[in-house]
Amino acid sequence: MEIRGLHFDHLIMFRVRNQKENWLEGIKVMEDFPLNHEVYKNGPVLFSFEEEEDGEGLFTYFMPINTEIEFEEGITDFAYLNQYQLNQSLLLRHAQEEFDFRTAYEKVKAYAAAENLSVEDSYICVLLNVYGEYIIDLYVPLKEWSEVQ
Asked: Which residue among 45, 72, 87, 133 is buried most deeply as judged by most CB within 10 Å?
């Protein structure tokens, strides 16, 4: 486990409600986006998940692109973000080795508690496509350093 930041410029964002186990569906939507909108993907897809009940929740997907983009009127599923940044986070490399994202997140929280670090109640999964398979890094933001005991 290590402390790392995360920074991307020019991103598209897509939100959808779905079952936790259907996390790949949003990835497919994001990867089809550049083909239809004359932009180029220039970084990994990342997402967060806010669980609500019965394994369902809100997924927020982000994909770095090469330039700013304006969406046509009526497109509400997508939004443009100029920048995405996490200043200090605990990073768990290859989180897919855990049973699920929640298990990986609990592992990071346990490590943080043992190290007297205070973490947020959220996480970001970064999907690195390596030879057609995904490697998943889990970032858990640290609360303000001043709050660390």
From this structure: 45
Asked whether the beta carbons of 117 and 92 are under 8 A apart, the reply is: no
With a pLDDT cut of 70, the percent of the chain lying above it is 91
- Where do the DSSP E strands lie in the chain? 2-19, 45-53, 56-64, 78-92, 124-130, 133-141
User: What are the helix and strand counts (H, E) for the chain?
Assistant: 2, 6
Distance CA 137, CA 72 (A): 33
One-letter identity of residue 53: E
Q: Write the pLDDT tens digit of every residue in 47-59.
A: 998 878 777 889 9
What are the backbone dihedrals phi and psi of residue 92, each rounded to the nearest 5 degrees, phi first? -105, 110
